[in-house]
Design brief:
Elements (H helix, E strand, L loop, with lengths): L1 E3 L13 E4 L4 E3 H4 L4 E6 L5 H19 L2 E7 L11 H11 L4 E4 L4 H6 L3 E2 L1 E5 L5 E3 L18 H12 L10 E4 L10
Parallel strand pairs: 4-5, 5-6
Antiparallel strand pairs: 1-10, 2-3, 2-6, 4-8, 7-10, 8-9
Length: about 190
């Protein structure tokens, strides 16, 4: 099921976490923060929306790192019903694409719930005071064929945050596959 994210709640404070990454390291919110901000993104392996943007996402996160914006990716999906999203498959995807960011496993789904994550991808752009400044789409192309006039919404927003610590006022929601909640979990 496709869902769209709510509008940005400017100033909302990032929630702490400590999750295992595909490098078998424990990554915290504080570890992930860059000198100019942090992009927290909820993604997964199997989502067609994520697969469609993955090469561009990797490119943009590498470029953002040079601007002092770090990135952490979190997968929170139910791996029983969606085995492609298992931790072992997360490790394979990380290695196959040489991710320039930590890819962490939210096995309990507690982090996704604390962020009110809705879908994959769901992007949360924070300034270096851990204040939310962006919650919107990746770009204007989305799952389609890359066009010459593609608007790099996420990249441009994070660049603005790096420069001014403020995100753009006008933001277009992200669209993606719903997070796959465990059957025993209460949906947010």
């Amino acid at each position: 099921m496709s869902l769209t994210t709510p509008v940005c709640n400017f100033g909302w404070k990032a929630k702490t976490f400590k999750l295992v990454s595909t490098n078998n390291e424990m990554i915290s919110l504080e570890d992930a923060m860059g000198p100019n901000g942090l992009l927290v993104m909820f993604i997964c392996n199997h989502c067609p929306y994520v697969k469609a943007i993955l090469p561009r996402l990797i490119h943009d996160t590498r470029e953002l790192k040079t601007l002092g914006i770090n990135t952490v990716a979190i997968s929170s999906n139910d791996v029983i019903n969606y085995p492609e999203d298992s931790f072992e498959n997360m490790k394979k995807l990380t290695k196959e694409h040489d991710f320039p960011f930590d890819y962490c496993f939210d096995e309990t789904q507690a982090v996704a719930k604390s962020y009110d994550a809705i879908c994959t991808p769901d992007f949360f752009g924070f300034n270096n005071n851990y204040e939310l400044q962006y919650r919107g789409r990746f770009d204007s192309t989305g799952r389609g064929e890359l066009s010459d006039n593609n608007e790099r919404d996420l990249f441009n927003a994070m660049k603005l945050i790096a420069d001014s610590q403020k995100g753009p006022i006008d933001q277009i929601p992200s669209i993606g596959c719903s997070i796959k909640w465990k059957e025993s979990a209460t949906n947010p």
